[in-house]
């Protein structure tokens, strides 16, 4: 910190700068809507699978934002205070996610899930067609629970914004209490949501660590997007705030989380691979054949190996260019990861490229999330100006 001047106040107060990026983002969202409509008429499962990938990205960003901020607030961490406005805005895609999943609930379930009541052969998917699992996997139950869980998580996100304003010791205790509630709701709620939306693509497949794998992947994606947002905003509205020690802390989390994601992915593969049970190992066989294996290798390199190696050096960890490289690798790797989860369920016997037209639908969802983030940053600000911990955290006095 000796090379960086201390500040006593933020002058001028950080604010979102005018940006032209909203126009390309709006165009991408409009293009995604047009591509979805065209694909829906030509090949409905491709359209809905592309939408599922895009909506999952929005949900993961929202969950990652909530989990990261709540866990740090519960632990009394202060380094996130200057960044919590940016981090909160990254998870602002909840309205679009809820709208998209409402469309799936109304029209897309038969195209995505073979256990749908519209499938006359659904009984053959279950060992006991009249058993509890067959009773549980119903269109109406899926729609009700999915939309309720999304609305509940969105409510937690909105409530967190009000609890993030700290102006007294009592407000800080209130934030810690809400952090406990948020985590108690988020972890089982998101696990249930991940089971219903992604695990249910193969109704008989099971995974002991699916909830943990999805949660760590969500936080990982959120950290990558946080690095990209900080690099962009740090050149404009957050120029006074984007200090080396804050970027270093963020880079440390990105590096560590890359290792966590790699460990859980290896743990799931090891458990299923060593057991070699047909009803479990088939999931991997679908994703290692017909060219998907190359994507799986690329995904692990991009999501885990590259960010870990780039940020391994403490000197590079705080460099904006290194965080941009790591952030882009995490975003691209997560996109490939979701492609491998979703697409082979609909194209098991041939390769479908991640650059296929339906990828534009997922890109449009991400563009819509960016527009909602801009709206959140414009309305709520980039930093909590009334928080007495803000200036000490910017100056590194919390370290």
How would you describe this structure to a colleague?
- Helices cover 69% and strands 0% of the residues.
- With 399 residues, it is mainly alpha-helical.
- The longest helix is centred in the middle third of the chain and has 32 residues, at 244-275.
- It is globular.
- It starts with 21 loop residues before the first helix and ends with a helix.
Topology diagram in text:
Elements: H1 22-42, H2 44-74, H3 84-90, H4 94-112, H5 132-136, H6 139-163, H7 169-197, H8 210-233, H9 244-275, H10 278-286, H11 292-310, H12 314-317, H13 320-342, H14 359-380, H15 390-395
Helix pairs in contact: 1-2, 1-14, 2-3, 2-4, 2-6, 2-7, 2-8, 2-13, 2-14, 3-14, 4-6, 6-7, 7-8, 8-9, 8-13, 9-11, 11-13
Round the mean pLDDT to the nearest integer and report it: 90
Shape assignment: globular
Broad structural category: mainly alpha
Task: Let me know the number of strands.
Answer: 0
- Major β-sheet, in short? none
Query: Which residue ranges are poorly predicted, with pLDDT under 50 across at least 5 consecutive positions?
Result: none
